[in-house]
Amino acid sequence: MKAGKGGVLTRKVLFSPYVVLGSVLAALCAALALMEPRFLTVSNLVNILRQSSILGIIALGMTCVILVRGIDLSVGSVVALSSLVGAALVKGGVPFYAAWGAALLAGGACGALNGFTVAWMRVPPFIVTLGMMGAARGAALLFTGGAPISGFPEVFRLPGTGWFAGVPLPVLVFAGVFAALFVLLELSSWGEQVRSIGSNPVAAWGSAIPVPAITASVFVLSGVLAGLAGLVLAGRLDAAQPTAGLGYEFGAIAAAVLGGSQFSGGKGTLFGTLMGVLIMGVIGNGINVLNVNPFYEQVVRGLVIAAALVFYGRVSAGNPA
Amino acid sequence: MKGRRLLSVAMAVLLVLSFPLAAAASQTLGVVISTLNNPFFVTLKDGAEEKAKELGVELVIYDAQDDSAKMTSSMEDLIQKKVGGILVNPTDADAVVPSILKANAAGIPVFTIDRGATSGEVVTHIASDNVAGGKMAGEFLAEKIGGKGKVVELVGIPGTSAARDRGKGFHEAMEGYPDIEIVASQAADFNRDRGLAVFENILQAQPEIDGVFAHNDEMVLGAIAAAEAAGRKGIVFVGFDAVGDAVKAVKDGRLAATVAQQPKEMGLLGVEYAVKYLGGETIPDNVPVPLMLVTE
Fold first, then answer.
1. Residue A165 belongs to what domain range?
2. What pLDDT, in 10s, does the model give residues B145-171?
3. Residue B175 shares a structural domain with residue B279
4. Residue of chain B with shortest Cα separation from A297
5. What is the 3-state secondary structure (H, E, C) of chain A?
6. Do A246 and B191 make contact, defined as CB atoms within 8 angstroms?
7. Are B157 and B193 members of one domain?
8. Would residue B7 count as lying in a domain?
9. Same domain (yes/no): B253, B275
């Protein structure tokens, strides 16, 4: 048998990151289903999707940021600040859609400040967004004196609690963000420019790409998505809290990296991140469903992620592509 | 004649001198409170004042306004005044240490209230008894579900003293009810959104749940949101801390009970034990303050 073109293609398909990630996810699900039959029910799978959507929305934005060699540590704090802005307004009698808009605007404003400082002031994104992480959290705490705002009109809560055609609205919001970003990244010139900045910034500067504007726009996007996640969270909890979203940045970064995003820029896909988010969601659900001792929880979570990354790295190294 | 006169003058001088000295040495207590901008600590101060009045002790009270620098200068003032003892509710367990060391050097006993200190010599620490609180919550929950059934425990950040103590008390209470099974005991990190997600998952795994005890109110409020969204009724929820949203949930009948700290008791016990110590009694290293169930 000659190793023909067909063989290479099969290898390529078999070892493509998606297939690998998909198999990791399937293996996890199969193992959990064997250990606890209740894991594999429609209602639990829907539950996992719904829980994962908040982190998912943020992680998709994070993927774009990592694509331009950036990082956004402020997302968790922005979730808190923007949900408080929306909550305070709707409690103050502002119509729900205006309150939603204001929350997204607040997220976008934080993102714009990040983006401006990174793109035009040339401050490393790690430092800039670390600063915003503290500033937005502090602003959120000052805003309400540390207290939560709770008890919203039903309609304001819809992004977190609603259902449409048997699917929870948070999942539909997540799917909508995925579709919109897919179009932007894969089919628009913006997406092409984002990728070229990430893979070779020097060349990007040399070409006609408006590097600062594109870089800044990615941070704005991440901020707006954090605001959107904040609205979903506030709806689900019926409360907005200055302490909400603590540690979300780590979850989002972990999901993106698990999905194949690389800090060296230019690499990373929305689909990979989606897989990363689902793997993290399934691990969290599995721990609770199996009633794993809380002391082992961190260990289990860490080990599964590390194992997935090692496996993924091995297989991709063998990938001719 | 001359000798007697001299003696009486000397006695008068001695009296004048010794009276404030004696008062300063044993009758005056300094109190430094982290902030009086929070009703919790105002109640604590009221309790201290009430006890001081009852025992005939004078209090010098300082408000640190949540500022460690202000706390430090207040402590220094009290050391200068040579008060008999200092009761401090630190703004921060680390920031208070230098002041405590100064008081130690000046030979002034220090008592901490509510928040402890990481180092320095402290006579006793007066704080809520989390073990008793967890036990109280567990017994209430057990009675409320009729002494049998399936319960879930939402654990705080694993390893923290509050999670350890509240969990210990809860498990002690559960040992008295052999017909109650703890079907899940999962960490939700004292956090409302974690409480929501973790309890959503537990609801998936457990078709039958009669009661939930969470190590704090934030987690139990998240769990209530999860149960309501899933349409699961008839679960008895018990929280801990009596935060505003939880007290409201108790009033609305969504939360069966929450465990409240008693700041007034902290103030009362603080002064009581400080006076006991200054009177030469030996007192324990820790004075546990009883907690109270809020059920309506």
1. 38-290
2. 999 999 999 999 888 888 999 999 999
3. no
4. B187
5. CCCCHHHHHHHHHHCCHHHHHHHHHHHHHHHHHHHCHHHHCHHHHHHHHHHHHHHHHHHHHHHHHHHCCCCCCCHHHHHHHHHHHHHHHHHCCCCHHHHHHHHHHHHHHHHHHHHHHHHCCCCCHHHHHHHHHHHHHHHHHHHHCCCCEECCCHHHHHHHHCEECCEEHHHHHHHHHHHHHHHHHHHCHHHHHHHHHHHCHHHHHHCCCCHHHHHHHHHHHHHHHHHHHHHHHHHHHCEECCCCCCCHHHHHHHHHHHCCCCCCCCCCCHHHHHHHHHHHHHHHHHHHHCCCCHHHHHHHHHHHHHHHHHHHHHHHHCCCC
6. yes
7. yes
8. no
9. no
CATH number at residue A64: 1.10.3470
In a mutational test of the A interface, the residue from B66, B160, B189, B193 whose CB has the highest number of chain A CBs within 10 Å is B193
Residue B10 is assigned to a structural domain of this protein: no
Beta carbons of B255 and B229 less than 8 angstroms apart = no
Residues B155 and B226 in one domain: yes
Quote ipTM for the complex. Answer: 0.87
Residues of chain A positioned with their CB less than 8 A from the CB of B244: 147
A306 found inside a domain = no
Chain A hits for B202, CB-CB cut-off 8 Å, are 288-289
Shortest Cα distance, chain B CAs vs residue A212, angstroms: 36
| Measured distance CA(B226)–CA(A52) in Å, rounded | 15
Q: Tell me the residue range of the domain where B214 lies.
A: 130-260
CA proximity to A135, closest of A74, A86, A60, A177: A74
Q: Is residue A7 part of a domain?
A: no
Mutate to test the interface with B, among A83, A144, A238, A295 (most CBs of B within 10 A): A238
Q: Closest Cα of chain B to A136: distance in Å? A: 19
Residue B86 lies in a domain: yes
Q: How many domains does chain A have?
A: 1
Confidence of residue A211 (pLDDT cuts 50, 70, 90): very high
> Has residue B77 been placed in a domain?
yes
**Structural domains of chain B, count:** 2
**pLDDT tens digit string along A156-186?**
999 999 999 989 999 999 999 999 999 999 9
Same domain, residue pair B252 and B158:
yes
Question: Cβ–Cβ contacts within 10 Å for residue A166, how many?
Answer: 7
Query: Radius of gyration (Cα) for chain B, nearest Å?
Result: 24
Taking phi first (over 0 means left), then psi (-120 to 50 degrees means alpha), and beta for anything else, what does residue B155 get?
beta
Task: Give me the CATH number covering residue B282.
Answer: 3.40.50.2300
